């Protein structure tokens, strides 16, 4: 292995380790500022290492000069983001001196990134020992080098001082961070050595991925940035098994090759390099030759997912939009696969115009529309602009002004852009990025099942969009094969998992074990055959053909591994997907919600039934006359009948809510629902001497929903307010204000009380299941159930409370775009 290839491997390891660490921290960080800053900082390192990899890989003057200058964009912001992270880690980010220091670092980062392509910064690139080309510094570059060194030294000084002043757990965290980044920046600063005609040690760059391992260990073992991670035994087993399998196959391959060294004049190390190189070349050739087929397969899988989602909820806008999104991806993928294998330019142009960009123009806009429903955000103006832009790009496409086709090895034909094509690229990236920003913001504010659903949508579609975006590289003349296209199906896998595991888009699917086992076996069989072919090719590399002996050896190795892998995967499937038995957490949640809503009507029935029984006994013993008892008996029996009907209505409402295929929502008069809810709580209000002021008109727009479910929400809020004020002194004001207002396409309902308020620590957990402030008298499911119902109606619920100043619950629902008839 020569120095040049060693640089490439180190840069790739850095890119992968920093990228994965950044994604892990952003997902697990819970939306905290420190984790977001660390994620941005680590992504900056990842971007720098990828550009550095492309720089050392490139063998042309123009390519090397471009990547050499471009890598200084992310590099310019590495010191500033590192300082920002360290300040938050040490808790000094709000000190005046630190704010000034941080702003100066960011200002210098902006300056150096703005001059990255200036000849005064990087003059040119020239042949350098160990590299095809390396940068030749301009007069500004020494300033950048000085800034980088001074910045890194300053930040490590802050870390060292923070370490000396810290205690316990915090001291351990800072110690690991300090040690890790001393190693990382030792390796990173070594890349400046060739600029001053010194040799860059190949081992230096491996210190950067080593740093990421140390930081990851600090997160897992010492909860750096308060990230708590529970590592499942199955994950460890999978990682260990993968490592052992890799070592096992590698050892067998090496042993097989070394046995052939006797008949070869090549030394063992050369034989090893030839073997590994042959394996990589074979995989590269397979990836390139199967590109068209994989695109067509992606199209078929996307259509399958789209049809399934549409079939499971065709009356729901989110489901219809996701189906439309899947069909747009299918059009793009199918058109791409057919274009690259076309035999004439006319045929290729047809597939590009009618399918590839016919679907691609719609993908980002339809995805943004889908996200608006998932995140429950009104993006009407943005969506109108996005659909207009999609239409404009589509017209440019069909009129032939967007792009044409031309030969592009290894493909028969590929897109050749016109100048206006850049507008499509910007449109695609801006809309897709904006949609993922909305998803990320919603993820950090969401809770429970919604949070898990958004997590899988965001991760899957982000990987899918990034993979699909690699098809732009050839269009803009960047000679990188679009391997990222193979990552597009990740969105299908993650969204399917979210549907099966977390009931995304309210789709409830029970998977039969036999069906899933068949699918797993089919996938494993494909992997089995492919691995045999690869190993057989590697074993037979010197014979220039795949011999029966090499095939047999490969088959024996994989057979030994195949059955244990299959058994483990089936166990994983049983544990994570099977719903033939009801999940215990779901059973507990459903039971608690049912008990919460039925408890009150039954309790209300108990007292009048007991009083009626006492009156009947008095009547039987002739202690009271019939004319005195009969009116009260009639009143109580009517009350019991009303409470029984109320219990039945609540059972039906909960049944509808738990059934995703229940009856569709209907047009409702909100004023009528509110008045029914108030009427149901009259007895409770009178008992606690609470005055309720109702400010709601009959001319509110209609809303779509289920009346009994919304009555549960309003009743729960009134009941909670009444019970909170029941604990107050008798001389205290006891009032509830219930009002409704209309703004744009939303109706806002407020339930405000003059009660004692809610403590801040309790307010943060108010909508969590099983959290209650009522002790043994509460189930902790009332407000949780309210939130679930409101979210199912496409609305939001929030709380605002101050100690001794009362509490206000605010509901926001979309109306049916029309007034009451």
Shape designation: globular
**Mean pLDDT across all residues, rounded?**
78
Radius of gyration: 33 Å
Low-confidence stretches: 252-266, 538-560, 577-588
State the secondary-structure class. alpha+beta
- Strand arrangement in the largest pleated sheet: 6-8-9-11-10
Please summarize the sheet with the most strands: 5 strands, mixed
How far the N terminus sits from the C terminus, by CA atoms, comes to: 80 Å
In total, the number of strands is 11
- Estimate the strand proportion: 5-15%
Q: Count of helical segments?
A: 28
Helix content percent band? 55-70%
Summarize the SSE layout with pairings.
Elements: H1 3-28, H2 33-57, H3 61-70, H4 72-90, H5 96-114, E1 122-128, E2 131-137, H6 141-165, H7 168-189, H8 207-222, H9 233-259, H10 268-289, H11 291-312, H12 317-340, H13 345-360, H14 363-374, H15 380-398, E3 403-408, E4 411-417, H16 421-445, H17 448-469, H18 472-475, H19 490-502, H20 513-539, H21 548-576, H22 584-620, H23 626-658, E5 666-668, H24 670-680, H25 682-687, E6 691-695, E7 703-705, H26 707-725, E8 735-743, E9 746-753, H27 760-763, H28 782-792, E10 796-802, E11 806-814
Parallel strand pairs: 6-8
Antiparallel strand pairs: 1-2, 3-4, 5-7, 8-9, 9-11, 10-11
Helix pairs in contact: 1-2, 1-8, 2-3, 2-4, 4-5, 4-6, 6-7, 7-8, 9-10, 10-20, 11-12, 12-13, 12-14, 14-15, 14-16, 15-16, 16-17, 17-19, 20-21, 22-23, 23-26, 24-26, 26-28
């Amino acid at each position: 292995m020569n120095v040049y290839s060693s640089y490439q491997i180190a840069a790739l390891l850095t890119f992968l380790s920093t990228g994965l660490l950044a994604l892990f921290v952003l997902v697990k960080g819970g939306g905290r500022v420190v984790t977001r800053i660390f994620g941005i900082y680590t992504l900056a390192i990842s971007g720098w290492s990828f550009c550095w990899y492309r720089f050392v890989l490139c063998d042309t003057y123009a390519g090397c000069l471009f990547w050499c200058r471009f890598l200084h964009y992310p590099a310019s912001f590495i010191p500033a983001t590192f300082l920002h992270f360290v300040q938050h880690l040490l808790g000094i980010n709000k000190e005046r001196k630190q704010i000034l220091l941080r702003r100066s670092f960011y200002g210098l980062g902006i300056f150096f990134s703005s001059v990255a392509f200036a000849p005064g910064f990087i003059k040119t690139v020239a042949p350098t020992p160990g590299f095809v080309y390396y940068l030749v510094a301009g007069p500004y570059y020494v300033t950048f080098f000085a800034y980088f060194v001074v910045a890194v030294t300053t930040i490590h000084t802050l870390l060292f001082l923070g370490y000396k002043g810290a205690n316990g757990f915090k001291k351990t965290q800072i110690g690991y961070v300090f040690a890790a980044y001393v190693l990382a920046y030792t390796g990173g600063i070594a890349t400046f050595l060739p600029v001053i005609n010194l040799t860059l040690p190949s081992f230096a760059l491996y210190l950067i991925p080593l740093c990421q391992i140390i930081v990851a260990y600090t997160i897992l073992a010492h909860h750096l940035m308060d990230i708590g991670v529970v590592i499942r035994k199955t994950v460890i087993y999978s990682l260990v098994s993968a490592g052992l399998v890799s070592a096992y196959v590698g050892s067998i391959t090496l042993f097989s090759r070394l046995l052939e060294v006797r008949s070869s004049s090549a030394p063992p190390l050369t034989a090893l390099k030839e073997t590994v190189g042959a394996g990589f070349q074979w995989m590269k050739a397979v990836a390139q030759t199967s590109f068209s087929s994989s695109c067509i397969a992606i199209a078929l899988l996307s259509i399958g997912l789209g049809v399934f989602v549409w079939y499971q909820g065709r009356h729901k806008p989110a489901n219809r939009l996701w189906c439309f999104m899947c069909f747009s991806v299918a059009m793009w993928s199918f058109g791409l696969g057919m274009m690259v294998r076309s035999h004439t330019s006319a045929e290729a142009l047809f597939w590009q115009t009618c399918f590839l960009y016919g679907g691609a123009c719609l993908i980002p806009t339809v995805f943004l529309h889908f996200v608006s429903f998932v995140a429950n955000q009104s993006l009407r103006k943005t969506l109108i602009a996005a659909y207009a832009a999609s239409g404009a790009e589509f017209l440019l496409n069909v009129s032939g002004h967007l792009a044409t086709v031309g030969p592009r090895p290894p493909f028969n034909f590929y897109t050749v852009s016109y100048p206006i094509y850049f507008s499509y690229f910007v449109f695609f990236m801006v809309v897709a990025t904006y949609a993922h920003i909305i998803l990320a913001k919603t993820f950090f504010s969401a809770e429970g099942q919604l949070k898990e659903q958004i997590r899988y949508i965001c991760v899957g579609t982000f990987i899918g969009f990034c993979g699909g975006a690699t098809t732009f590289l050839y269009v803009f003349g960047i000679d990188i094969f679009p391997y990222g296209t193979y990552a597009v199906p990740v969105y299908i896998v993650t969204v399917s998992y979210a549907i099966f595991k977390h009931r995304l888009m309210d789709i409830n699917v029970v998977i039969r074990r036999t069906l899933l086992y068949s699918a797993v076996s089919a996938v494993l069989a494909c992997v089995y055959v492919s691995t045999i072919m690869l190993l057989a090719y590697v074993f037979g590399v010197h014979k220039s053909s795949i011999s029966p002996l090499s095939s047999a050896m490969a088959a024996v190795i994989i057979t030994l591994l195949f059955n244990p892998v299959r058994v483990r995967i089936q166990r994983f499937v049983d544990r994570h997907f099977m719903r033939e038995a009801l999940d215990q957490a779901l059973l507990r949640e459903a039971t608690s919600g049912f008990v919460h809503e039925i408890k009150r009507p039954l309790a209300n029935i108990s007292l009048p039934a007991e009083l009626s029984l006492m009156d009947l006994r008095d009547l039987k013993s002739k202690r009271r006359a019939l004319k005195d008892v009969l009116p009260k008996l009639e009143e109580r029996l009517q009350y019991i009948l009303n409470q029984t009907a109320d219990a039945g209505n609540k059972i039906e409402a909960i049944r509808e809510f738990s059934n995703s295929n229940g009856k569709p929502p209907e047009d409702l008069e909100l004023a009528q629902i509110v008045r029914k809810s108030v009427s149901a709580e009259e007895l409770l209000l009178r008992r606690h001497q609470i005055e309720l002021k109702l400010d709601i008109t009959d001319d509110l727009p209609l809303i779509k929903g289920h009346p009994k479910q919304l009555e549960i929400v309003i009743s729960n809020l009134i009941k909670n307010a009444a019970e909170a004020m029941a604990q107050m002194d008798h001389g205290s004001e006891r009032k509830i204000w219930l009002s409704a207002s209309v703004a744009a396409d939303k109706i806002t309902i407020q339930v405000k009380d003059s009660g004692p308020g809610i403590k801040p620590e309790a307010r943060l957990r108010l909508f969590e299941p099983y959290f209650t402030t009522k002790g043994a008298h509460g189930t902790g499911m009332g407000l949780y159930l309210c939130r679930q119902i409101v979210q199912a109606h496409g609305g939001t619920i929030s709380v605002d409370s101050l100690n001794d100043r009362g509490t206000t619950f605010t509901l926001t629902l979309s109306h049916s775009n029309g007034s009451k008839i």
